[in-house]
């Protein structure tokens, strides 16, 4: 039997349309970069994310001379600002901290059992410091922490969105296909969840969970809470879509052909829901990333020694700190880039999927 | 291209005065990866008081030509620089949006195909007509309202005074189309463009609307550009005809002359694609009864707060092996409900249905499964009846897989190819997907899917109503061929009496859920017993005698 060369599967068509959106392609490149950061975070970070130096160090100035790249760390001049009474800093006379590729460092754990004693970029001598985005209130390098935090923040969001998507899909498709009493009761449950005032719950949870709880358990509680509250919206969309699909003539034709429920769901309804689910997945992920950073700001972040963007933004809640050290807001850059990339990909994907 | 000779039309024996002249209309649309030339250089003219019919199949560029006259092409279209349109000797600057806004509705008015969506559901009928009047003339609202009332009377709507305050959803399709015509006439245009004005309406209503347009035309000396694919309409209501194909006018001239003696092969083909004649007699007396229904009643709703709606009442249907039975009726007459109920895809409230002697009206979906291979259905909409995610092979193979026909993949493939061949499709399309096919090809795919399981009876629900005439003719040929070769029986549902006449040996006429008449096709059509059937027949086969 001849196969036509021009035949295009659905996936290929979607990809062709997706490629047309440069914003989506840019987002995709950023996402691939983020995936690399998730795996190699500690290796890419120029400094040990947990090492403490002097608190609230301003970002280092990076320069280049005949010997290669160097960083200058601002030094106190000994004088205070007459208005804010903060010590005045100056780069003049600061020692040049050499930056090298493949820098040697104390051994650290990259992933699971893998340990390394090299960083991609680092100071030429162990113990020196260079803060690209400054240091936080414990004197830890914000840039390195931000890179390492990608792991926890993205994996947390990914877990939550996977759980909510699966639950939403299952509940929505069941309600839509079964109809009747099952549908009515599931919809009431969805109503309750959608009506739930989430913010007070998060704040209460933050206050209720004992400080002694281990960080792993704390993350589990966080994921569980976000997942339980998050699936309702998607399930309603899926239900509507299933209702529509179940009334399509091709489902009717399948019934007329003698197909059973299993076959109709697996062959005729599920594949047509997948595009919607995929788009919803990429567009929900950034909202969870945002929510995590927002909850961190409110005090409900993961616990050290884990690092997440939300945890880093917790520091920002002190107003005096922002006023004096605006650079501690810089973890927002990571959140921004991630959210933007996911939204760009999600939008492009939706446009690519939609024509049918 | 033969030039039209001056002649006297039967309807308007007045002076021939050139109204609109269009020269070298060419329109290209930019699409992904190139441009599509929808109209490729079209010249025509319309005289005052005459009707020019623009005829062609879907995609031939009829509507685009009309929209070019109105300057309504949209951003993706490009009109050729040499295109000229003159109205009353004056150059219409169709590229100048500001100028055209003044022309639209005042000099040239348009009536669209879909009366459901061309009226704004949020405003009253009166309000919308008043708006149309005030768009072009400073008229006090009170005066405009009086004028609107006159217009509604003009289009023969009953009780125009009360109608002014009604909303579009309170009117029927035919009434809405009358309102659209009233709106179009509100500024006394010289040219009315009617783009498939009756395609969405029932035959009976269609005749009324066309009569109305013709009547108004003679009263106002209105020129009409009638866009249609229906040659019966053309024959009855137009003075001249222009046949379009692939963006070109292939033939033009007086309607009767062109249709009686076409000079272009395409016109001939178009004319011959019209379903005509009666189906051959098939001796079915001795054949066993396949499907028999007695006193079928179908009721929707009735639970909770929604009142019950009786879709079908006391319907008797009988189809023998190898026989084609047509069910005709207007929209809402219960044809589709009956078809779905007889194939047990919808619930039957009361009555008996038996298939090959076996009672099936109470069988569950699971109990119906063994019978499904013998009783198949082809659904109306070729675009929604094929799962967009399945390849042609997967689509047609599904019935074989679920019914465990054919033991090996190659055996099934053989059957799939045979079904494709029987439905008149090539066999190198197995790995293509439905979106790569046209409406006619998709309907063939539906037919191939149904006949792959080798049924005894095929229920067809308006299988050709979304398709062009030439495609319809080919599908009818295919169906007749299958009937003869396989002894397949049909229950053929259609609103088009001509199609039913060409295919079916017996006919059932439905109205408001009740069967008003049934019998051999020839008897019913030539000697209708009920007044309703008579009217349907008259509307369907009416030709204006000149």
Give the strand order, joined by hyphens, for the main sheet of chain B. Answer: 7-8-9-3-10-11
Structural class of chain B: alpha/beta
Helix percentage range of chain B? 25-40%
Give the largest interface: A-B, 26 and 40 residues
CATH topology of the largest domain in chain A: MetI-like fold
What's the total number of strands of chain A? 6
Residue stretches of chain A low in confidence (pLDDT < 50, at least 5 long) are: 1-7
Q: Identify the CATH class of the largest domain in chain A.
A: Mainly Alpha
Q: Tell me the domain tally of chain B.
A: 3
For the termini of chain B, the CA-CA separation is 25 Å
CATH architecture of the largest domain in chain B: 3-Layer(aba) Sandwich
Name of the CATH first level of the largest domain in chain B: Alpha Beta
Largest sheet of chain B: 6 strands, mixed
Strand order of the largest sheet of chain A: 1-2-5-6
What is the count of DSSP helices of chain A, taking H or I runs of 4+ residues? 11
Structural Rg of chain B: 26 Å
CATH topology of the largest domain in chain B, anyone?
Rossmann fold
Question: CATH superfamily of the largest domain in chain B, please?
Answer: P-loop containing nucleotide triphosphate hydrolases
For the record, give the distance between the C-alpha atoms at the N and C termini of chain A, rounded to a whole number.
29 Å
């Amino acid at each position: 039997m001849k196969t036509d060369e021009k035949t295009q599967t659905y996936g290929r068509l979607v990809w062709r349309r997706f490629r047309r959106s440069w914003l989506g392609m840019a987002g995709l490149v950023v996402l691939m970069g983020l995936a690399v950061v998730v795996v190699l975070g500690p290796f890419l970070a120029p400094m040990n994310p947990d090492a403490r130096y002097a608190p609230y160090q301003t970002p280092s100035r990076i320069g280049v001379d005949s010997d290669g790249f160097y960083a200058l760390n601002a030094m106190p001049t000994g004088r205070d600002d007459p208005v804010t009474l903060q010590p005045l800093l100056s780069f003049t006379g600061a020692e040049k901290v050499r930056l090298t590729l493949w820098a040697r460092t104390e051994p650290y754990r990259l992933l699971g059992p893998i340990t390394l004693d090299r960083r991609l970029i680092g100071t030429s001598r162990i113990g020196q410091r260079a803060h690209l985005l400054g240091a936080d209130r414990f004197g830890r390098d914000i840039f390195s922490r931000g890179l390492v935090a990608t792991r926890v923040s993205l994996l947390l969001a990914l877990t939550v969105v996977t759980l909510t998507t699966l639950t939403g899909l299952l509940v929505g498709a069941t309600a839509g296909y079964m109809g009747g009493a099952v549908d009515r009761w599931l919809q009431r449950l969805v109503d309750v969840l959608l009506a739930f005032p989430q913010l007070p719950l998060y704040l209460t949870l933050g206050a209720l969970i004992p400080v002694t709880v281990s960080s792993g358990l704390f993350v589990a509680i966080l994921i569980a809470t976000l997942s339980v509250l998050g699936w309702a919206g998607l399930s309603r969309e899926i239900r509507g879509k299933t209702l529509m699909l179940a009334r399509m003539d091709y489902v009717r034709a399948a019934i007329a052909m003698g197909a059973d429920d299993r076959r109709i769901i697996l062959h005729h309804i599920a594949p047509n829901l997948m595009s919607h689910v995929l788009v919803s997945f990429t567009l929900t992920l950034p909202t969870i990333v945002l929510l995590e950073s927002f909850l961190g700001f409110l005090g409900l972040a993961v616990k050290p020694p884990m690092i997440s963007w939300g945890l880093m933004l917790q520091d920002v809640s002190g107003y005096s700190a922002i006023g004096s050290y605006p650079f501690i807001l810089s973890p927002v850059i990571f959140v921004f880039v991630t959210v933007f990339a996911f939204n760009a990909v999600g939008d492009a994907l939706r446009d690519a999927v939609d024509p049918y | 291209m033969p030039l039209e000779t001056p002649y006297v039309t039967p309807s308007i024996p007045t002076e021939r005065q050139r109204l609109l002249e269009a020269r070298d209309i060419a329109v290209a649309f930019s699409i992904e990866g190139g441009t599509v030339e929808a109209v490729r250089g079209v010249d025509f003219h319309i005289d005052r008081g005459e009707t020019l019919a623009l005829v062609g199949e879907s995609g031939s560029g009829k509507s685009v030509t009309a929209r070019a006259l109105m300057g309504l092409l949209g951003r993706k279209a490009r009109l050729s620089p040499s295109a000229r349109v003159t109205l009353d000797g004056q150059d219409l600057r169709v590229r100048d949006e500001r100028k055209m806004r003044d022309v639209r509705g005042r000099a040239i008015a348009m009536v669209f195909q879909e009366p459901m969506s061309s009226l704004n559901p949020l405003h009253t009928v009166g309000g919308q007509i008043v708006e149309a009047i005030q768009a072009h003339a400073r008229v006090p609202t009170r005066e405009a309202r009086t004028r609107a009332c006159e217009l509604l009377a003009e289009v023969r709507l009953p009780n125009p005074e009360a109608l002014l305050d009604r909303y579009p959803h309170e009117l029927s399709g035919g009434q809405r189309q009358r309102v659209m015509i009233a709106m179009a006439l509100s500024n006394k245009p010289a040219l009315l463009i009617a783009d498939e004005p009756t395609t969405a309406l029932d035959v009976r209503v269609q005749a009324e609307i066309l009569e109305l347009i013709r009547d108004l035309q003679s009263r106002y000396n209105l020129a009409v550009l009638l866009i249609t694919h229906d040659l019966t309409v053309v024959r009855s209501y137009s003075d001249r005809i222009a046949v379009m194909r692939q963006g070109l006018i292939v033939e033009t001239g007086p309607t009767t002359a062109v249709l009686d003696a076409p000079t272009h092969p395409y016109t001939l083909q178009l004319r011959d694609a019209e379903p005509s004649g009666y189906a051959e007699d098939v001796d079915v007396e001795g054949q066993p009864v396949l499907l028999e229904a007695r006193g079928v009643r179908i009721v929707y709703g009735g639970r909770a707060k929604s009142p019950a709606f009786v879709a079908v009442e006391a319907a008797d249907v009988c189809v023998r092996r190898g026989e084609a039975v047509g069910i005709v009726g207007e929209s809402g007459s219960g044809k589709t409900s009956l078809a779905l109920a007889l194939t047990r895809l919808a619930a039957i409230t009361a009555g008996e249905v038996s298939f090959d002697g076996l009672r099936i009206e109470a069988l569950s979906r699971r109990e119906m499964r063994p019978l499904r291979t013998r009783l198949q259905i082809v659904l109306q909409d070729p675009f929604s009846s094929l799962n967009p995610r399945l390849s042609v092979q997967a689509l047609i193979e599904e019935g074989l897989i679920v019914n465990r026909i054919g033991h090996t993949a190659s055996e099934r493939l053989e059957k799939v190819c045979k079904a494709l061949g029987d439905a008149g499709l090539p066999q190198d399309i197995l790995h293509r997907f439905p979106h790569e096919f046209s409406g006619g090809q998709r309907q063939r795919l539906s037919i191939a899917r149904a006949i792959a399981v080798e049924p005894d009876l095929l229920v067809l629900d308006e299988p050709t109503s979304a398709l062009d005439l030439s495609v319809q003719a080919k599908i009818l040929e295919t169906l007749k061929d299958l009937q003869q070769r396989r002894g397949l029986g049909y229950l053929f549902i259609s609103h088009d009496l001509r199609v039913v006449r060409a295919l079916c040996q017996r006919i059932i006429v439905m109205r408001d859920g009740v069967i008003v008449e049934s019998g051999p096709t020839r008897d019913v059509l030539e000697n209708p017993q009920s007044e309703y059937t008579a009217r349907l027949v008259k509307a369907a086969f009416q030709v204006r005698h000149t």
